[in-house]
């Protein structure tokens, strides 16, 4: 089964919480704070794995979580850092942010990787909050949450040459003749339901990859037939070989087919339609009307296309076509991707900044929600004066108090943070 587009959810590990602890040594009567720091949460890393060819494994596992950091302990022992989660993908995988469809990375090289979600920082233990006037702090800092996001993984084949053409024009046969690929071949439409790849070694030229793409029909850009499943895989190719059936057996007009497919390419992406393209007139061994062939060649030449007459079944004309393909690949060299890519400095994903909390009024209550609430509740000992003072200072420094005042809070009103309630006094 070939799977080329999948959605997954990833979550980096949360940071471990700092510890509240004190020295308890026999000959140290006034031992100070000794709470260790929490460990950093593990990152989620996506890395190219050359042994993978499809995204099928992600069909059965949609959620991927890195390990959280360990909590701090006494005697200034820090929690262990969470293990990173490494997710393998095939070469040619594009990673998109599901929320806005923006491309985060295009992974093509073996071993290439990206940190897609960063683990949360560990919280500081109470040893960090000791001062000359607060020598025994009874609170520590909570760990930060790791990044969490939904992704779309999209596989685009890494082929040098893409074979264009309507169903049943002989693309699969041509591929089987010029390479060792063994695609299914049969005399009915939509034989090829998934892309087939073949490696071609021709004369003294370095080997190159040819993709036999599923047959395209009119309206593919809007999703008709195999729609974008076809167009997605043509995007990476350097050269397009457009195969037309000139046998006349099915009553189709080859030039009309040629025009329709190029219209679909241009609708999908104008850059794609400008890729170098040559035309192969296939099934020359069974052609019925030679005069029609001359007219077709003239029309294609008038539009600026090189034309080759071949028979994939007998091998007639394939040598000349392959000679021209390798020459064009040398001339074309590397091509620019036709999809928008982020700047190199943006390759490591950084989630868009979002406020750590929200404040709202519900009846006579003022409610504070968000990541900041969880972090504070993991940090504060409400039975300790210094800890409560720290709690109030964080609310003011983060802007929570200012937001409450903007909502019209007055002295004596109740503020809720999860399961905690307190009265507000200015």
From TrEMBL:
Q: Taxonomic lineage per UniProt?
A: Bacteria, Bacillati, Bacillota, Clostridia, Eubacteriales
Cite the record's note on assembly.
Answer: Monomer.
Where in the numbering of this chain does the OBG-type G domain appear? Answer: 159-330
Q: State whether keyword GTP-binding applies.
A: yes
Q: Kindly state one GO CC term assigned in the UniProt record.
A: cytoplasm
Cofactor(s) demanded: Mg(2+)
Q: Give the EC number.
A: 3.6.5.-
Official protein name in the record: GTPase Obg
| Family annotation (Gene3D superfamilies) | GTP-binding protein OBG, C-terminal domain (3.30.300.350), GTP1/OBG domain (2.70.210.12), P-loop containing nucleotide triphosphate hydrolases (3.40.50.300)
**Chain segments carrying region Disordered:** 63-83
| Superkingdom in the source lineage | Bacteria
Looking at the record, the residues that make up the OCT domain are 349-426
Q: Quote the subcellular location field of this record.
A: Cytoplasm
Family, according to the entry, reads as follows: Belongs to the TRAFAC class OBG-HflX-like GTPase superfamily. OBG GTPase family.
Q: Molecular function (GO) terms listed?
A: GTP binding; GTPase activity; magnesium ion binding
EC main group: hydrolase
Q: Which residues bind Mg(2+)?
A: 172, 192
């Amino acid at each position: 089964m070939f799977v080329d587009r999948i959605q997954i959810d990833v979550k980096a590990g949360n940071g471990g919480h700092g510890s509240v602890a004190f020295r308890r040594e026999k000959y140290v009567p006034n031992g100070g704070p000794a709470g260790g720091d929490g460990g950093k949460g593990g990152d989620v890393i996506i890395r190219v794995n050359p042994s993978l060819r499809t995204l099928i494994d992600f069909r059965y596992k949609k959620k991927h979580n890195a390990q959280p950091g360990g909590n701090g302990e006494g005697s200034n022992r820090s929690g262990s850092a969470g293990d990173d989660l490494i997710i393998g993908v095939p070469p040619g995988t594009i990673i998109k942010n599901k929320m806005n469809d923006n491309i985060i990375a295009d992974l093509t090289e073996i071993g290439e990787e990206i940190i897609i979600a960063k683990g949360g920082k560990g919280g500081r233990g109470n040893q960090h909050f000791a001062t000359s006037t607060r020598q025994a702090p009874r609170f520590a800092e909570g760990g930060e949450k790791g990044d969490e996001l939904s992704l779309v993984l999209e596989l685009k084949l890494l082929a040098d040459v893409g074979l264009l053409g309507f169903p049943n024009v002989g693309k699969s046969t041509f591929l089987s003749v010029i390479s060792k690929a063994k695609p299914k071949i049969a005399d009915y439409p939509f034989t090829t339901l998934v892309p087939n790849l073949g490696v071609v070694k021709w004369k003294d030229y370095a080997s190159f990859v040819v993709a036999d793409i599923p047959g395209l029909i009119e309206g593919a850009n809007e999703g008709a037939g195999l729609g974008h499943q076809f167009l997605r895989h043509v995007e990476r190719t350097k050269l397009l070989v457009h195969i037309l059936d000139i046998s006349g057996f099915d009553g189709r007009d080859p030039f009309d087919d040629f025009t329709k497919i190029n219209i679909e390419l241009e609708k999908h992406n104008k850059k794609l339609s400008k890729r170098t393209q040559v035309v192969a007139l296939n099934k020359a061994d069974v052609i019925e009307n030679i005069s029609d062939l001359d007219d077709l060649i003239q029309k294609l030449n008038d539009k600026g296309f090189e034309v080759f007459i071949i028979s994939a079944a007998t091998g007639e004309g394939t040598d000349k076509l392959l000679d021209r393909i390798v020459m064009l690949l040398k001339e074309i060299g590397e091509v620019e991707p036709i999809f928008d890519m982020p700047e190199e400095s943006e390759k490591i994903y950084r989630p868009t900044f979002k406020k750590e909390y929200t404040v709202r009024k519900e009846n006579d209550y003022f409610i504070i929600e968000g990541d900041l609430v969880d972090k504070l509740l993991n940090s504060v000992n409400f039975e300790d004066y210094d800890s409560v003072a720290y709690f109030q200072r964080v609310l003011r420094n983060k802007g929570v108090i200012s937001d409450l005042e903007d909502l019209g809070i007055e002295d004596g009103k109740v503020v809720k943070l999860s399961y905690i309630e307190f009265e507000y006094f200015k």
